[in-house]
Amino acid sequence: MSEFYQIHPDNPQHRYIKKAAEIVQAGGIVALPTDSCYALVCRLDDKAAADRLRRIRGVDERHHLTLLCRDLSEVASYAKVDNRQYRLLKAATPGSFTFILPATKEVPRRLSHPSRKTIGLRVPDNRIALALMQEMGQPLLGATLILPGDEDPLTNPDEICERLKNQVDLVIDGGACSLVPTTVIDLSSAEPMLVRQGRGDASAFGF
After folding, report:
1. CA-CA distance, 29 to 49, in Å (whole number)?
2. What is the number of domains present in the chain?
3. Is the pTM of this model over 0.85?
4. Which among 117, 89, 90, 85 is positioned nearest to 104, based on CA atoms?
5. Domain of 75, in residue numbers
6. b/e for 120-139, b at 16 or more Cβ within 10 A?
7. Is the pLDDT of residue 94 over 90?
8. Residue 99's domain is classified under what CATH number?
């Protein structure tokens, strides 16, 4: 049975953030709000948790899981970023974007795309997600909370708890989220490529 915490979206209560971090560190999967949709997250270096997350989502290893990072300096530890890419990232973070970038050796091989050696990264503009990463001192591995057979992401914490009560370890109620997922932009090639138009405004990238 999942635990359920109501956490203030603007002033997250530290006692709950600390408990959530302990759950993630112990191998748990948490459903939490972001600046786009709710997401499922787990610890970056926990293969068992990542495999569990993929099973809940119904995706295989070809599906990019996303690294949620605290800031751009953390992004640079996991992705190869040149000056052009950095300027684009700086203009769009934090925000509702996911960027596909070449992965560094810091990213476990099983988490990068098997044929392209790329990784999806984002810096969410959400205080609960950022507080949890700050408490853990590292990024989170995550995916938008869209369940197999559904067309739209789950955005109601009560519904998330009801449908995933035996599959996730914690549901964080941080209020309703958007139904629109992140905008996905591939920066791994010479020119940016719009993979998915979502909540983020892609006009700054020339789309």
Report:
1. 7
2. 1
3. yes
4. 117
5. 3-205
6. bbbbbbbbbbbbbbebbebb
7. yes
8. 3.90.870.10
